């Protein structure tokens, strides 16, 4: 990174207002060629908004954009893309029904005779590009038949393949597993060495320190700090993001899971809160048995595609099963019915919040109250006061940043949408909560809050099934960990055996066995 | 992986080629059951009468894949026919150019309204349906004036032919091939799928969303006009009372052919199969003899319902893999 070089892209006192909020308030940021620039801040701090101003999605209300030394105003993302600014947005933005290859190559398909798309070459090229990202697959299949990880890799490959001078990544790792994150980092380093400027948004601090050169901290739409990252102590960075004193942060404002449960505990209650037996679905699940006792947090470990999300979906009836049964508090659950599952007190926070959870046009209040309506109403008549109370409690506890409870959820920042979804399932006062990547995209402060909440709920007797790609979160949060591979449970760890190392080994061992 | 490739592939094939398979089955059944069904003459008559719907359906396929709908095609079909017959008094060129220009213009205006103002396609093209029908009634004195085709070269376009098939059949085949290439093998075609599959996503991927929509409605208008032109040439006159509800038949054929009404997926082969399927059903009912043609609509309706149910099930199978 050469400090002397002129910035390739620069924001000067950019302001952006939405009804009820000032998303950006005089933000300045200079992006140098060949640097990886971290952009951090709490949920709703304005990171995505700044990026959307850079790429022509939003028009700034004030301030200037300077690109290659001259002022610019991109009218559309296409303009920005043509000028050499390539972006991976926070929510995967591809076309699910189109094939992987067509998504990857859209807009720059190889042409054959008569200017017609040369499909053979297109498929070949797509395969070659994706292989470079460790994805080897049939590129003709529709994108939607793949998991979030593959989709994210396609989005990444697409953004990088475009001849860009600036590559912007808004939380690119949120759906990736560790191996894929490594691939991503090597891509980022390659870009940096080629003199391309990279903007990197993430809530995972480890990643920032691993790959970023400089950092800009946004807080409530203003720049709280800009400078080299290596010099900035981790706690100091957190303090800057949260706007608290360093000392306050240091003395444990950020405890995560706090219960001591390193040792197998006696199980309260004679029977498990939920017992799933022999969950089977062709090519996806192969006879998975899971039991969660009241007050217990069971973690599911394994690589992407191991069947973790599918297990959770199978339990609540969101995935049709070929065989298997689910027993909740001693009573068998009607299979294939999510309504029955909710009624029995099983809640699932799904992995793909955009497709499976959030109802974008409804308000924060309605989204939170949705699943809990039956319990908040009497004889079918909904009590407004009760809803207000519940909504108020969860908005405060999870620190959901919205102009008001009546703001449509689609206008919230990505992390705040995630919190709303979490609140929805907490509001049904479930007996069992299945959390699929609960802290993905949630900022450090709220992450601690969510983890503390999970702890607290478990203390109160709730059974929790926790799925997380974040090993640290699994280790600290779970009493017991089941390791899945290719749709089957291949290992169980509990008590002192639960460490990041043992989980890794368990995954790897079994991998070596079944590969051999 | 979340998907099971086998199941997923089966459902994809069914989705894309279901109509074709049913068509083949019906043809076989028809040939066995009725002596007069599998004759060259009957085949030709099915092809000829289907060709006009097929031309409109090609345009409609693009519209529906892009996530829209075009209700104005029935009116434009008639409008095109009347203008062609009227224009034929000035020669072949005017008989072709006048209706195409007019219908293209209507399509273009609808496209601009939909793409630029974000108005719902249903509403805009419903207005088109009503407006154009009114316009047509106005120039034909409430349908009292029927324009006869004055140019014999023009009439031959609809009546002449080769090997027992009239020109419109060949023109349809040619258009279908061009449309297939356009949809599968050009950037425009890919943009149509992208816009229908995920409009905001497509915009962020750099797809010119508005332009794509405008082209799609322009195309649909032009093709509806062209079908009207050819029909006028076939009948040697521009009949005004035709084409009521035609847009619904066309939409039915497209959906039966496997194109998703919600956009993002579908294709020309399916649409052609869907149109022929409806044609064959009609022909079979004629063979039975003592059934009225109203019965054909009942069968088509049932069929459509079946297809939509099947699509939902298949779609679920694919999503859940
Ligand atoms: N289209 C919109 N309409 C109204 N308000 C919006 C809109 N987009 C963003 N906002 C508001 O602007 C603020 C900043 O949002 P932004 O998405 O930039 O946050 P972020 O820093 O990316 O957060 P996260 O880490 O959760 O992704 C939030 O308060 C959000 O509610
Ligand atoms: Mg964001």
TrEMBL record, chain A:
The keyword Membrane applies. It comes from the Bacteria. It is found in: Cell membrane. Residues 9-245, 249-511 form the ABC transporter domain. PROSITE patterns: ABC_TRANSPORTER_1, ABC_TRANSPORTER_2. The keyword Manganese does not apply. This is Monosaccharide ABC transporter ATP-binding protein, CUT2 family. It comes from Microbispora rosea.
UniProtKB/TrEMBL annotation, chain B:
InterPro entries: ABC_transp_permease (IPR001851). Its main location: membrane. The chain crosses the membrane at residues 20-38, 44-64, 93-115, 122-140, 160-183, 214-233, 268-288, 294-314. GO terms for cellular component: plasma membrane. It comes from the Bacteria. Keywords: Cell membrane, Membrane, Transmembrane, Transmembrane helix. It is found in: Cell membrane. This is Monosaccharide ABC transporter membrane protein, CUT2 family. It comes from Microbispora rosea.
